[in-house]
Write a structure and sequence with these properties.
The chain has 432 residues and is of the alpha+beta class. Helix content is 56%, strand content 14%. The chain has 16 helices and 11 strands. The chain has a 4-stranded antiparallel sheet, sandwiched between helices. Strands 5, 6, 7 and 8 form a 4-stranded mixed sheet that branches. It has a 3-stranded mixed sheet with strand order 3-4-9.
Amino acid sequence: MSLWDQMKWSLRHAKKQPLESLLVVVAVALGVGVIITVLTMLLSVGQQYRSVVQADYFRSLNVMGQAESSRREGAPLTLIGSDMERLDWSATLEEIAEFQRHLPPTMHAYVETHWMSKTPLLPDEDTSEDESLYSWYFDPNQIFIMGTLPEFFAFNGDTLQRGNLFIAEDVLSSNHVIVLPNVLAEDLFGEDDPLGQVVPLITFDEGEAVDYTVIGVLDSPQGEAEDVSFGVESRTAYAPITVSPYGGGEQSFMNITVGVDVDVDLALALEQASSEARLIWGDQVSVTSSMAEFKESQSQMQRYTLLIGLLASVGLVIAVINILNLMLARVLKRTKSIGLSMALGSSRKMVFRQFLLESIIPGLVGSLLGIVLSFGLGVVMDKALGAFFVTSSLGMRVLLGVAMGLVVSLLFGVYPAYLGSRTNPVDALRTD
């Protein structure tokens, strides 16, 4: 009897008991679907970590006052009111410069502020077919200005196409100089050399234009950075923070960013930054790591996911036990037919294979349905828990599903098949 004939034999017996077979398929599908979802989410955590560890945001530390840190984390009642005001903190540019001098060259302390400005060098009406999110929120003649410090460029790793970046002297002297991305330089000046050109910027609707001299042009961002920022990066110009219309050089800052180079250990960098910050500002400041916060949130999500996976595993084990009892009942019910088959020449190996196929087929069908179900469960759990991005490929899901289907089928199929193959044909034929 060929393997195909044995499969058809197993399918015929499964059709004779459709309700039992359906219950087997549903139980396996539910258990396998949930476990695949949990496993793919756990695998995605490692993929996320390897991808985000290179991102600027996750390689940055945040220096802020204890009050601001408490507000972000949800301040306890004991810090509300006068206690919170007592803990308010801000840093001047001189203190930030001193802080930077005590940091190693692989760490870059900077602050930033942002404002919108209009320029007559761009048309008032949109003549392009730009449908980016940027074009929906801002006027065609507006550009986004980031006021910052030279250390921002050292950390951000922008490629200078031509000219120069502004330096510390430009910041101290409040020089009205500006660095443009290549795309914005072309929009403003076309094919003309932008270096030395003047960009008149009107920050407030009623204000007068302030002239900024172009000293450098950056290569425009490409790939993921451009996609994530919806095109804003290509319309962002950079200027010394002291020319900001919101305080300029007299401004104090409640948040300092410390960018850490890629090859530096973040935990060690956090310890160094915390030590140096406390030497300058005492216990008023708190230094936090974006990566540490990300890992903590991921750990919390992992705990929830593992709990769900554990419950699903317990449910699958219970289902396997029930299915095992069902298969044992099938073997006992067909004892006489097994004895007759063996009396007519069927070997014990053939009987064992027939019953094993009868359990494997619904197990595999259930696992395939579980693979399909895992996609829907992944979307539901992603929205419910957040912080997860289920990136496992279809091949990984199929591999996990088929492997689990085979394991489950063997768990509830091997023992009944073994009992069936050990049937004594003489004793079986004597039974009623």
